[in-house]
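Observation: inputs received (chain + adenosine-5'-diphosphate).
Thought: call the complex predictor directly.
Action: predict_structure
Action Input:
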Amino acid sequence: MIKKIGILTSGGDSQGMNSAVSGVIKYAQAQGLETYIIKDGYLGLYNNWIEKVDSFFADGIISRGGTAAGSARFPEFQEEEIREKAIKNLKDKKIEALVVIGGDGSYKGAQRLSEMGINCIALPGTIDNDISSSEQTIGFDTALNIIVDSIDRIRDTSQSHSRCTIIEVMGRHCGDLALYGGIAGGADIVSIGGNPLSEEDIIEKVTKLKGIVRSVVVVVSEHLYDSVHELAKKVQEASGFETRASVLGHIQRGGKPTAMDRFRAFTMGIRAVELILDGKSGLALGNVGEEIVDYPILEALEIPRKSRKKLWTQFNNLNIRRIK
Ligand code: ADP
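Observation:
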Protein backbone atom coordinates (compact mmCIF):
# COMPACT_ATOMS: atom_id res chain seq x y z
CA MET A 1 0.00 0.00 0.00
CA ILE A 2 1.37 3.36 -1.03
CA LYS A 3 2.04 5.70 1.90
CA LYS A 4 3.72 8.70 0.29
CA ILE A 5 2.84 10.63 -2.82
CA GLY A 6 4.73 13.40 -4.64
CA ILE A 7 3.30 16.20 -6.79
CA LEU A 8 5.06 18.37 -9.32
CA THR A 9 4.11 20.99 -11.89
CA SER A 10 6.18 21.19 -15.05
CA GLY A 11 6.59 23.09 -18.31
CA GLY A 12 4.73 26.34 -18.95
CA ASP A 13 2.60 27.29 -15.95
CA SER A 14 -1.16 27.63 -16.19
CA GLN A 15 -3.95 28.89 -13.99
CA GLY A 16 -5.47 26.02 -12.07
CA MET A 17 -2.25 24.09 -11.52
CA ASN A 18 -2.52 25.11 -7.87
CA SER A 19 -6.12 23.89 -7.72
CA ALA A 20 -4.99 20.49 -9.03
CA VAL A 21 -2.19 20.34 -6.45
CA SER A 22 -4.73 21.27 -3.80
CA GLY A 23 -7.07 18.44 -4.87
CA VAL A 24 -4.25 15.90 -4.79
CA ILE A 25 -3.02 16.97 -1.35
CA LYS A 26 -6.42 17.18 0.30
CA TYR A 27 -7.69 13.86 -1.00
CA ALA A 28 -4.39 12.09 -0.36
CA GLN A 29 -4.26 13.44 3.19
CA ALA A 30 -7.84 12.32 3.76
CA GLN A 31 -6.75 8.83 2.70
CA GLY A 32 -3.91 8.89 5.22
CA LEU A 33 -1.07 9.48 2.74
CA GLU A 34 1.90 11.75 3.30
CA THR A 35 2.15 14.41 0.61
CA TYR A 36 5.30 15.95 -0.87
CA ILE A 37 5.78 18.87 -3.24
CA ILE A 38 8.66 18.67 -5.67
CA LYS A 39 9.76 22.25 -6.34
CA ASP A 40 10.35 23.39 -9.93
CA GLY A 41 9.24 20.24 -11.72
CA TYR A 42 11.75 17.70 -12.99
CA LEU A 43 14.60 20.08 -12.19
CA GLY A 44 13.69 19.87 -8.51
CA LEU A 45 13.22 16.12 -8.73
CA TYR A 46 16.80 15.85 -9.95
CA ASN A 47 18.09 18.31 -7.34
CA ASN A 48 16.13 16.72 -4.50
CA TRP A 49 14.04 19.84 -3.82
CA ILE A 50 11.34 17.81 -2.11
CA GLU A 51 9.23 19.22 0.74
CA LYS A 52 6.61 17.57 2.90
CA VAL A 53 3.36 19.58 2.88
CA ASP A 54 -0.04 19.24 4.53
CA SER A 55 -3.63 20.36 3.98
CA PHE A 56 -2.81 23.89 5.16
CA PHE A 57 -0.59 24.27 2.10
CA ALA A 58 -3.50 23.10 -0.05
CA ASP A 59 -5.96 25.51 1.62
CA GLY A 60 -3.88 28.52 0.75
CA ILE A 61 -3.40 27.90 -2.96
CA ILE A 62 -6.66 26.77 -4.56
CA SER A 63 -7.52 30.25 -5.81
CA ARG A 64 -4.01 31.44 -6.62
CA GLY A 65 -2.60 31.92 -10.12
CA GLY A 66 0.80 30.57 -11.14
CA THR A 67 2.08 27.45 -9.44
CA ALA A 68 3.18 27.51 -5.81
CA ALA A 69 5.20 24.35 -6.46
CA GLY A 70 7.21 26.24 -9.09
CA SER A 71 7.94 25.08 -12.61
CA ALA A 72 10.96 24.89 -14.86
CA ARG A 73 12.15 23.64 -18.22
CA PHE A 74 14.74 20.92 -17.76
CA PRO A 75 15.53 19.27 -21.10
CA GLU A 76 18.23 17.14 -19.43
CA PHE A 77 15.42 15.02 -18.02
CA GLN A 78 15.35 13.20 -21.36
CA GLU A 79 18.63 11.54 -20.33
CA GLU A 80 18.29 8.24 -18.50
CA GLU A 81 21.11 8.86 -15.97
CA ILE A 82 19.45 12.14 -14.95
CA ARG A 83 16.15 10.38 -14.41
CA GLU A 84 17.87 7.62 -12.44
CA LYS A 85 19.20 10.19 -9.97
CA ALA A 86 15.73 11.75 -9.74
CA ILE A 87 14.20 8.35 -9.01
CA LYS A 88 16.82 7.69 -6.34
CA ASN A 89 15.77 10.94 -4.63
CA LEU A 90 12.17 9.70 -4.55
CA LYS A 91 13.11 6.22 -3.38
CA ASP A 92 15.34 7.58 -0.59
CA LYS A 93 12.22 9.28 0.76
CA LYS A 94 10.09 6.20 0.02
CA ILE A 95 7.87 8.19 -2.33
CA GLU A 96 6.44 5.61 -4.72
CA ALA A 97 3.91 7.61 -6.69
CA LEU A 98 3.89 10.95 -8.47
CA VAL A 99 1.24 13.24 -9.90
CA VAL A 100 2.63 15.33 -12.75
CA ILE A 101 0.74 18.42 -13.90
CA GLY A 102 1.94 19.87 -17.18
CA GLY A 103 1.83 19.78 -20.96
CA ASP A 104 2.79 17.11 -23.48
CA GLY A 105 6.53 17.43 -22.73
CA SER A 106 5.81 16.81 -19.06
CA TYR A 107 3.66 13.81 -20.06
CA LYS A 108 6.70 12.28 -21.78
CA GLY A 109 8.72 12.68 -18.59
CA ALA A 110 5.90 11.03 -16.59
CA GLN A 111 5.78 8.13 -19.04
CA ARG A 112 9.52 7.58 -18.68
CA LEU A 113 9.24 7.61 -14.87
CA SER A 114 6.38 5.09 -15.03
CA GLU A 115 8.55 2.82 -17.18
CA MET A 116 11.25 3.12 -14.52
CA GLY A 117 8.98 2.00 -11.68
CA ILE A 118 7.41 5.18 -10.27
CA ASN A 119 3.60 5.18 -10.41
CA CYS A 120 2.82 8.33 -12.36
CA ILE A 121 -0.48 9.97 -13.23
CA ALA A 122 -0.41 13.01 -15.53
CA LEU A 123 -2.87 15.94 -15.53
CA PRO A 124 -3.24 18.35 -18.48
CA GLY A 125 -1.86 21.66 -17.19
CA THR A 126 -1.45 24.16 -20.02
CA ILE A 127 -3.38 27.16 -21.30
CA ASP A 128 -2.85 26.03 -24.91
CA ASN A 129 -5.56 23.32 -25.02
CA ASP A 130 -3.19 21.23 -27.10
CA ILE A 131 -3.65 17.91 -25.28
CA SER A 132 -6.30 16.09 -27.27
CA SER A 133 -7.04 13.51 -24.58
CA SER A 134 -8.77 16.30 -22.64
CA GLU A 135 -11.53 18.45 -24.10
CA GLN A 136 -10.19 21.37 -22.09
CA THR A 137 -6.82 21.60 -20.44
CA ILE A 138 -6.35 23.17 -17.01
CA GLY A 139 -5.84 26.90 -17.56
CA PHE A 140 -7.48 27.14 -21.00
CA ASP A 141 -10.74 28.60 -19.67
CA THR A 142 -8.95 31.27 -17.63
CA ALA A 143 -6.61 32.27 -20.47
CA LEU A 144 -9.58 32.40 -22.84
CA ASN A 145 -11.44 34.77 -20.53
CA ILE A 146 -8.37 37.01 -20.31
CA ILE A 147 -8.15 37.07 -24.12
CA VAL A 148 -11.83 37.93 -24.52
CA ASP A 149 -11.54 40.69 -21.91
CA SER A 150 -8.46 42.02 -23.72
CA ILE A 151 -10.21 41.98 -27.09
CA ASP A 152 -13.13 43.91 -25.60
CA ARG A 153 -10.77 46.55 -24.24
CA ILE A 154 -8.75 46.82 -27.42
CA ARG A 155 -11.90 47.13 -29.52
CA ASP A 156 -13.08 50.03 -27.36
CA THR A 157 -10.00 52.07 -28.14
CA SER A 158 -9.85 50.83 -31.76
CA GLN A 159 -13.40 52.14 -32.18
CA SER A 160 -12.53 55.48 -30.64
CA HIS A 161 -9.61 55.98 -33.02
CA SER A 162 -10.92 54.07 -36.03
CA ARG A 163 -8.08 51.60 -36.08
CA CYS A 164 -7.33 48.07 -37.07
CA THR A 165 -5.64 46.08 -34.32
CA ILE A 166 -3.89 42.76 -34.76
CA ILE A 167 -3.93 40.84 -31.48
CA GLU A 168 -1.47 37.98 -31.05
CA VAL A 169 -2.42 35.29 -28.56
CA MET A 170 -0.64 32.20 -27.25
CA GLY A 171 -1.40 28.57 -28.08
CA ARG A 172 1.82 27.34 -29.71
CA HIS A 173 0.77 25.13 -32.63
CA CYS A 174 -2.82 24.91 -31.34
CA GLY A 175 -5.23 27.58 -32.56
CA ASP A 176 -7.94 27.11 -29.92
CA LEU A 177 -7.11 30.22 -27.87
CA ALA A 178 -7.22 32.34 -31.04
CA LEU A 179 -10.34 30.70 -32.47
CA TYR A 180 -12.42 30.50 -29.30
CA GLY A 181 -11.14 33.92 -28.17
CA GLY A 182 -11.77 35.50 -31.56
CA ILE A 183 -15.30 34.13 -31.74
CA ALA A 184 -16.22 34.98 -28.14
CA GLY A 185 -14.57 38.39 -28.44
CA GLY A 186 -16.37 39.27 -31.68
CA ALA A 187 -13.19 39.59 -33.78
CA ASP A 188 -13.52 40.35 -37.49
CA ILE A 189 -10.74 38.07 -38.72
CA VAL A 190 -9.07 35.06 -37.08
CA SER A 191 -5.90 33.32 -38.20
CA ILE A 192 -4.97 30.11 -36.39
CA GLY A 193 -2.30 27.44 -36.38
CA GLY A 194 -3.41 24.69 -38.76
CA ASN A 195 -5.43 27.14 -40.86
CA PRO A 196 -3.32 30.29 -41.08
CA LEU A 197 -4.23 33.17 -43.34
CA SER A 198 -1.35 34.48 -45.42
CA GLU A 199 -0.26 38.07 -44.82
CA GLU A 200 -1.79 38.89 -48.21
CA ASP A 201 -5.13 37.36 -47.15
CA ILE A 202 -5.20 39.54 -44.03
CA ILE A 203 -4.27 42.64 -46.00
CA GLU A 204 -7.00 41.91 -48.53
CA LYS A 205 -9.67 41.37 -45.89
CA VAL A 206 -8.75 44.49 -43.92
CA THR A 207 -8.59 46.57 -47.10
CA LYS A 208 -12.13 45.46 -47.98
CA LEU A 209 -13.36 46.46 -44.53
CA LYS A 210 -11.88 49.96 -44.79
CA GLY A 211 -14.70 52.45 -45.23
CA ILE A 212 -17.33 49.89 -44.19
CA VAL A 213 -16.52 49.51 -40.51
CA ARG A 214 -14.94 51.91 -38.04
CA SER A 215 -12.54 49.42 -36.49
CA VAL A 216 -11.19 45.97 -37.23
CA VAL A 217 -9.96 43.35 -34.79
CA VAL A 218 -7.75 40.60 -36.16
CA VAL A 219 -6.81 37.76 -33.77
CA VAL A 220 -3.82 35.60 -34.69
CA SER A 221 -2.06 32.67 -33.03
CA GLU A 222 1.56 33.15 -32.03
CA HIS A 223 4.38 31.97 -34.34
CA LEU A 224 2.37 32.34 -37.55
CA TYR A 225 4.08 35.52 -38.75
CA ASP A 226 7.68 36.70 -38.38
CA SER A 227 6.46 39.77 -36.49
CA VAL A 228 2.94 41.03 -35.93
CA HIS A 229 4.36 44.55 -35.59
CA GLU A 230 5.80 44.28 -39.12
CA LEU A 231 2.54 42.76 -40.30
CA ALA A 232 0.65 45.73 -38.83
CA LYS A 233 2.87 48.13 -40.81
CA LYS A 234 2.21 46.20 -44.02
CA VAL A 235 -1.54 46.15 -43.38
CA GLN A 236 -1.55 49.91 -42.71
CA GLU A 237 0.45 50.71 -45.84
CA ALA A 238 -1.70 48.56 -48.09
CA SER A 239 -5.15 49.21 -46.58
CA GLY A 240 -4.90 52.81 -45.41
CA PHE A 241 -6.38 51.65 -42.08
CA GLU A 242 -4.26 52.87 -39.18
CA THR A 243 -3.09 49.55 -37.76
CA ARG A 244 -1.46 48.54 -34.49
CA ALA A 245 -0.30 45.23 -33.13
CA SER A 246 -0.84 44.05 -29.59
CA VAL A 247 0.91 40.96 -28.26
CA LEU A 248 -0.96 39.75 -25.17
CA GLY A 249 1.98 37.65 -23.98
CA HIS A 250 2.28 36.37 -20.46
CA ILE A 251 -0.75 38.17 -19.04
CA GLN A 252 -2.61 35.22 -20.57
CA ARG A 253 -0.89 32.87 -18.12
CA GLY A 254 -1.42 34.86 -14.91
CA GLY A 255 -4.20 35.69 -12.48
CA LYS A 256 -6.77 33.70 -10.57
CA PRO A 257 -8.14 30.57 -12.25
CA THR A 258 -11.80 30.63 -13.25
CA ALA A 259 -14.27 28.52 -11.30
CA MET A 260 -14.34 25.90 -14.08
CA ASP A 261 -10.56 25.61 -14.19
CA ARG A 262 -10.49 25.22 -10.40
CA PHE A 263 -13.29 22.66 -10.42
CA ARG A 264 -11.80 20.59 -13.25
CA ALA A 265 -8.31 20.72 -11.78
CA PHE A 266 -9.37 19.89 -8.21
CA THR A 267 -11.54 16.96 -9.25
CA MET A 268 -8.80 15.61 -11.54
CA GLY A 269 -6.49 15.82 -8.53
CA ILE A 270 -8.87 13.63 -6.53
CA ARG A 271 -9.15 11.15 -9.40
CA ALA A 272 -5.36 10.96 -9.74
CA VAL A 273 -5.02 9.90 -6.10
CA GLU A 274 -7.84 7.38 -6.49
CA LEU A 275 -6.04 5.78 -9.45
CA ILE A 276 -2.74 5.70 -7.59
CA LEU A 277 -4.42 3.98 -4.65
CA ASP A 278 -5.78 1.44 -7.15
CA GLY A 279 -2.19 0.72 -8.19
CA LYS A 280 -2.51 2.41 -11.58
CA SER A 281 0.40 4.10 -13.37
CA GLY A 282 1.26 5.70 -16.72
CA LEU A 283 -2.18 7.26 -17.15
CA ALA A 284 -3.16 10.70 -18.41
CA LEU A 285 -6.39 12.27 -17.17
CA GLY A 286 -8.68 14.41 -19.24
CA ASN A 287 -12.27 15.56 -19.36
CA VAL A 288 -15.21 14.83 -21.63
CA GLY A 289 -17.73 17.38 -20.45
CA GLU A 290 -17.83 16.99 -16.68
CA GLU A 291 -16.65 13.38 -16.80
CA ILE A 292 -13.02 12.64 -16.01
CA VAL A 293 -11.49 10.08 -18.38
CA ASP A 294 -8.10 8.39 -18.45
CA TYR A 295 -5.85 7.02 -21.18
CA PRO A 296 -2.42 5.41 -21.17
CA ILE A 297 -0.04 8.37 -21.55
CA LEU A 298 1.41 7.06 -24.82
CA GLU A 299 -2.10 6.72 -26.26
CA ALA A 300 -3.07 10.18 -24.98
CA LEU A 301 -0.10 11.70 -26.81
CA GLU A 302 -1.17 10.06 -30.08
CA ILE A 303 -4.83 11.16 -30.12
CA PRO A 304 -5.21 13.42 -33.17
CA ARG A 305 -6.43 16.95 -32.66
CA LYS A 306 -10.03 17.65 -33.63
CA SER A 307 -10.05 19.76 -36.76
CA ARG A 308 -11.40 23.27 -36.22
CA LYS A 309 -11.36 24.01 -39.95
CA LYS A 310 -15.11 23.99 -40.50
CA LEU A 311 -15.81 26.37 -37.61
CA TRP A 312 -12.87 28.59 -38.58
CA THR A 313 -14.09 28.77 -42.18
CA GLN A 314 -17.66 29.51 -41.11
CA PHE A 315 -16.47 32.26 -38.80
CA ASN A 316 -14.15 33.95 -41.24
CA ASN A 317 -16.90 33.88 -43.86
CA LEU A 318 -19.36 35.71 -41.60
CA ASN A 319 -17.99 38.98 -42.87
CA ILE A 320 -17.99 37.98 -46.49
CA ARG A 321 -21.24 39.68 -47.39
CA ARG A 322 -20.29 43.02 -45.92
CA ILE A 323 -16.77 42.94 -47.34
CA LYS A 324 -17.56 41.61 -50.84
P1 ADP B 1 5.12 21.22 -21.47
O1 ADP B 1 5.06 20.16 -20.43
O2 ADP B 1 4.36 22.46 -21.09
O3 ADP B 1 4.83 20.68 -22.86
P2 ADP B 1 7.97 21.16 -22.11
O4 ADP B 1 7.80 20.60 -23.49
O5 ADP B 1 9.01 22.19 -21.90
O6 ADP B 1 6.64 21.77 -21.51
O7 ADP B 1 8.29 19.92 -21.15
C1 ADP B 1 8.43 20.12 -19.76
C2 ADP B 1 9.55 19.27 -19.26
O8 ADP B 1 9.24 17.88 -19.45
C3 ADP B 1 10.88 19.45 -19.97
O9 ADP B 1 11.58 20.60 -19.54
C4 ADP B 1 11.58 18.17 -19.56
O10 ADP B 1 12.07 18.27 -18.24
C5 ADP B 1 10.44 17.15 -19.58
N1 ADP B 1 10.42 16.42 -20.86
C6 ADP B 1 10.04 16.88 -22.07
N2 ADP B 1 10.19 15.93 -23.02
C7 ADP B 1 10.68 14.82 -22.40
C8 ADP B 1 11.05 13.51 -22.84
N3 ADP B 1 10.95 13.15 -24.12
N4 ADP B 1 11.52 12.64 -21.91
C9 ADP B 1 11.63 13.00 -20.61
N5 ADP B 1 11.30 14.23 -20.14
C10 ADP B 1 10.83 15.14 -21.01
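Thought: report the result.
Final Answer: Residues 140-161 form the longest helix (22 residues). The pocket of adenosine-5'-diphosphate is lined by residues 10-12, 42, 73-75, 77-78, 102-106, 108-109, 112, 126 (CB under 6 Å).
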